[in-house]
């Protein structure tokens, strides 16, 4: 025992190792050490990151079967820079002794064994370690820069391939997954393999070379440093036009602008002795309005602007009969109607147009129509038709389309000629415009038997059998059969329904009876506000010519001088004279053909471009003025001007207005006055003096809902017309106020003003109580009896039935307060004198009323209306009996009743006056009733006093 203790002490002193101590102490107690692993043949597997030392091992390293004091690493496969650290209970962790590098070595393999404290070692187990890569390196390109050359005008599958690599060992970080071009707005693309190709043909004129900045990304999305790729463009000559921009901007109000000032026609040294060259520029405006950018005024206003006859009747003028039709969406007018070929059709009221046609007339319309392949070639599509209203189906006259022909039917009645004589009855024009699905203007002018057709403002030149004229017999006479005039179909009287429906669009359909429209008017109606501008004629060289269509949307240059052709194309311009043009795109197409000697053609590719019309600033229309006006009863009966101080301003916003010296050139085309609530035609009216409208280009329609002023005219003229609008009310007592709303517009409602509201208030009379009258009286009210008092009293009676009573009370109060006789004993005489003066004044008033009886009768209704608004049925005058005055100046009382002199009767006489009360009254006097009353009043001019009883006064 002593030997063992000695040995233990020696070991501690020499090596200070736990292994030695354990071996000495447990030598006799250790078992067989072994590793705790389920599948020893598979061993352990570990994973360690490059930037870490701890190895994640599966399964956990653990020794069992004995007390484990350490683990041993056996290096059988090269370097193994690892160590095993014992933790507790036989478990251990594996660590790297230094930072590992996956790029140098990706894996390690070695054996380990557990060692017991007695020094015994377990069987070996294999450990497999993989080093996990981190994304520590960025991709790098193999070349510092790339330069390539390409020809213009070509598309390449591959211009250049760039390549980058990555030093990271793991494919996730070491492989290149994406290439990217950083330079924006370049016609190039790059794929994942680094292949760069062009997406559009390159143009040397636009850019001689393209410099691209390219980067690469590994699969961990780490980006490389950029490199420059330079692509040089080789100039290759191509036949065709150069220097024509893809887009040409046009600002409203800028006038004419040249489209292609840098245009050049290149033949690329191709040997060609030019014998003929032709270029045609086409401006496409079919998507705008009726085929181009026309004014957005209504058809009626446009006709006025062109000087058309005012007697022409518009059949599609937004009347009640057009509300069932569909309006063509978009464009710039709300008067283009769609007809569906099935049910769309309207009947024109007899009040709009006389259904019979004279021998001289003009029918004109805009129409957009296309071919209907599914229809029989004999099927009719009626634009306008007058037919029997019942029993029979005779068509008296019509304008219709059949088999892409425009046909006018004009049947004579028996009264127009001999029943046995053939006369022309049908004219058939074969026109390509009828079925090209574009807007065209057609006008048929008839001075029978001569018939002329105008297409797009130009006279159609008759050819052989075009038009084809068909003769027919006159219509036989019938009894009790009238006609029905329809648009978009024809009425079948025997079937009581519409047939022969039109499929297409109509606008501006009008009929002028008794005369024909002037040719220059028809040309103006079709004239477009936008067009191509023709180069100056002095630029034409000999052998060259310029040709245009009537709309100036097609312009051709033809000849044998190639140089002059270039000059002329450079000078072609575009202009839009509208103040507010429809914004958007107008396509341009330039086609060219060249013929060399021996009729050898050169193929010149067409050029596509477009004009972009920019949005014009919108005008601001502002209406200002007073918002409330109060007037007396008699003012409303005589008529009150609604907009007395109205003022309209239009803010100039486009360049063509900026140089205007005043607002005199600015126009409106309509103003609408709405009344709330609607007028009562029994006693309310609105009017505008006829002499005002005859001097202006303005027409007015007045109804119970208000007034509509229309017509393109100067803003100042509209102001003057609106200020003359007068409102009259013969029964103003029925109302507290009247509200009028005004809205004005320009360009057929495209630009609207603010809503200006004007309120007219009726001033109702006030009823003054007796006590108020006495309190408000002053000493100056009645100073003396004077003839002027009688006139004042008459005026007061005419204005108010209570005026005489108030005036009489004021006289009493004034005299009572001013006379000093009431202080002394003589006040009785003074009072008597005042009372007598009052009654004399009353008699003078009665006499004046008799003299002015005619005027009195004219104003009775006004007085009745005034009384209707204010109930004075409870107003009474109490008369006290006369008492003798005692010596001490006691109270004086007793007078005759005023009711005898103020006869109150209901004199309204209006049967529809539901709001009036039974006691509405006016001052009423009948001839022959005054003598006894005068005597009674004269005998009452004695010393007496009045008391005013207002106990039953109701206010």
What does this structure look like?
With 955 residues, the protein is of the alpha+beta class. Helix content is 17%, strand content 35%. A hairpin with an 8-residue loop joins strand 17 and strand 18. Helix 1 packs antiparallel against helix 2, helix 11 packs across helix 13 and helix 13 runs antiparallel to helix 14. The N and C termini lie far apart (139 Å).
Give Rg in angstroms: 55 Å
**Poorly predicted runs:** 1-29, 653-663, 773-826, 866-955
The shape is elongated
Compute the number of helices.
17
Termini separation comes to 139 Å
Strand content: 25-35%
User: What assembly state would you assign to the polypeptide chains in this entry?
Assistant: single chain
Strand pairing plus helix content: what structural class?
alpha+beta
User: Whole-number average pLDDT?
Assistant: 77
Q: Helix fraction? A: 10-25%
Say how many strands there are: 61
Main beta-sheet strand count, sense and barrel state: 9 strands, mixed
């Amino acid at each position: 025992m002593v030997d063992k203790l000695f040995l233990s002490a020696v070991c501690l002193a020499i090596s200070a190792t736990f292994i030695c101590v354990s071996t000495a102490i447990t030598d006799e107690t250790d078992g067989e050490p072994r590793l705790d692993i389920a599948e020893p043949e598979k061993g352990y597997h570990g994973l360690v990151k490059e930037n870490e030392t701890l190895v994640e091992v599966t399964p956990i390293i653990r020794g069992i079967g004995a007390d484990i004091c350490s683990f041993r690493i056996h290096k059988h496969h090269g370097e193994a820079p690892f160590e095993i650290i014992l933790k507790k209970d036989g478990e251990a962790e594996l660590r790297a002794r230094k930072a590992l590098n996956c790029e140098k070595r990706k894996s390690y393999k070695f054996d380990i064994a557990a060692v017991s404290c007695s020094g015994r070692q377990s069987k070996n187990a294999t450990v497999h370690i993989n080093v996990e890569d981190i994304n520590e390196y960025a991709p790098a390109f193999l070349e510092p820069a790339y330069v390539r050359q390409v020809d213009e005008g070509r598309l390449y599958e591959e211009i250049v391939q760039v390549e980058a690599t990555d030093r990271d060992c793991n494919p996730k970080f070491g492989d290149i997954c994406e290439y990217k071009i950083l330079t924006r707005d370049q016609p190039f693309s790059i794929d994942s393999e680094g292949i760069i190709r062009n997406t559009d043909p390159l143009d040397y004129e636009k850019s001689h070379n393209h410099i691209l900045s390219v980067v690469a990304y590994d699969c961990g999305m780490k980006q490389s440093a950029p490199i420059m790729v330079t692509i040089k463009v080789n100039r290759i000559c191509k036949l065709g036009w150069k220097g024509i921009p893809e887009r040409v901007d046009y600002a409203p109000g800028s006038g004419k602008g040249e489209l292609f000032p840098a245009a050049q026609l290149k033949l690329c040294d191709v040997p060609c002795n030019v014998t003929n060259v032709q270029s045609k520029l086409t401006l496409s405006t079919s998507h705008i309005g009726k085929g181009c950018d026309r004014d957005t005024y209504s058809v009626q206003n446009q006709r006025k602007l062109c000087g058309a006859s005012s007697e022409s009747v518009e059949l599609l003028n937004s009347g009640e009969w057009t509300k069932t039709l569909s309006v063509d969406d978009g464009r710039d007018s709300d008067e283009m109607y769609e007809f569906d070929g099935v049910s769309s059709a309207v009947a024109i009221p007899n009040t709009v147009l006389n259904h019979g046609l004279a021998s001289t007339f003009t029918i004109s319309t805009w129409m957009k129509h296309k071919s209907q392949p599914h229809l029989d070639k004999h099927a009719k599509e009626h634009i306008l038709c007058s037919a029997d209203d019942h029993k029979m189906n005779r068509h008296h006259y019509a304008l219709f389309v059949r088999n892409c022909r425009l046909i006018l039917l004009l049947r004579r009645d028996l009264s127009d000629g001999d029943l046995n004589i053939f006369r022309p009855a049908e004219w058939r024009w074969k026109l390509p415009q009828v079925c090209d699905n574009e807007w065209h203007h057609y006008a048929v002018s008839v001075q029978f038997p001569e018939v002329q057709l105008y297409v797009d403002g130009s006279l159609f030149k008759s050819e052989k059998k075009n038009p084809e004229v068909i003769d027919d017999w006159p219509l036989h006479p019938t009894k009790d059969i009238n006609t029905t005039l329809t648009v978009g179909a024809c009425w079948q009287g025997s079937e009581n329904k519409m047939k022969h429906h039109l499929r297409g669009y109509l606008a501006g359909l009008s009929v002028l009876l008794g005369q024909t429209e002037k040719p220059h008017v028809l040309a103006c109606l079709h004239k477009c506000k936008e067009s191509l501008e023709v180069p100056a004629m002095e630029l034409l060289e000999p052998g060259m010519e310029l040709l245009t269509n009537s709309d100036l949307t097609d312009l051709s240059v033809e000849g044998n001088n190639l140089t002059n052709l270039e000059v002329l194309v450079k000078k072609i311009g575009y202009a839009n004279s509208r103040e507010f043009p429809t914004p958007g795109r107008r396509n341009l197409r330039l086609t060219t053909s060249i013929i060399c000697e021996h009729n050898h053609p050169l193929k010149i590719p067409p050029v596509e471009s477009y004009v972009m019309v920019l949005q014009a600033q919108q005008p601001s229309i502002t209406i200002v003025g007073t918002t409330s006006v109060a007037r007396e009863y008699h003012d409303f009966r005589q008529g009150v001007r609604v907009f007395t101080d109205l003022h309209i301003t239009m803010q100039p916003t486009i360049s063509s207005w900026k140089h205007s010296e005043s607002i005199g050139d600015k126009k409106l085309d309509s103003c609408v006055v709405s009344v709330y609530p609607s007028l009562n035609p029994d006693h309310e009216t609105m009017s505008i003096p006829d002499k005002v409208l005859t001097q202006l280009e303005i027409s007015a329609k007045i109804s119970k809902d208000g007034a509509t002023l229309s017509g393109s005219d100067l803003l100042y003229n509209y102001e003057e017309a609106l200020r003359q609008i007068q409102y009259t009310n013969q029964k103003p007592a029925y109302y507290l106020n009247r509200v009028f709303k005004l809205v004005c517009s320009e360009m057929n409602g495209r630009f609207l003003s603010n809503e200006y509201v004007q309120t007219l208030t009726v001033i109702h009379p006030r009823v003054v109580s007796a006590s108020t009258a006495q309190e408000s009286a002053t000493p100056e009210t009645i100073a003396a009896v004077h003839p002027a008092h009688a006139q004042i009293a008459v005026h007061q009676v005419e204005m108010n039935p209570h005026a005489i009573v108030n005036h009489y009370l004021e006289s009493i109060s004034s005299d009572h307060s001013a006379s000093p006789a009431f202080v002394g004993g003589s006040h009785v005489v003074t009072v008597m004198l005042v009372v007598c003066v009052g009654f004399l004044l009353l008699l003078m008033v009665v006499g004046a009323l008799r003299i002015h009886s005619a005027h009195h009768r004219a104003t009775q209704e006004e007085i009745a209306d005034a009384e209707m608004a204010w109930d004075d049925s409870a107003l009474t005058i109490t008369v006290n009996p006369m008492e003798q005055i005692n010596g001490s100046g006691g109270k004086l009382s007793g007078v005759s009743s005023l009711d005898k002199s103020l006869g109150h009767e209901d004199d309204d006489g209006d049967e529809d006056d539901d709001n009036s009360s039974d006691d509405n009254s006016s001052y009423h006097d009948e001839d022959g009733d005054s003598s006894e009353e005068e005597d009674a009043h004269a005998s009452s001019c004695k010393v007496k006093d009045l008391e005013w009883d207002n106990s039953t006064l109701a206010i």
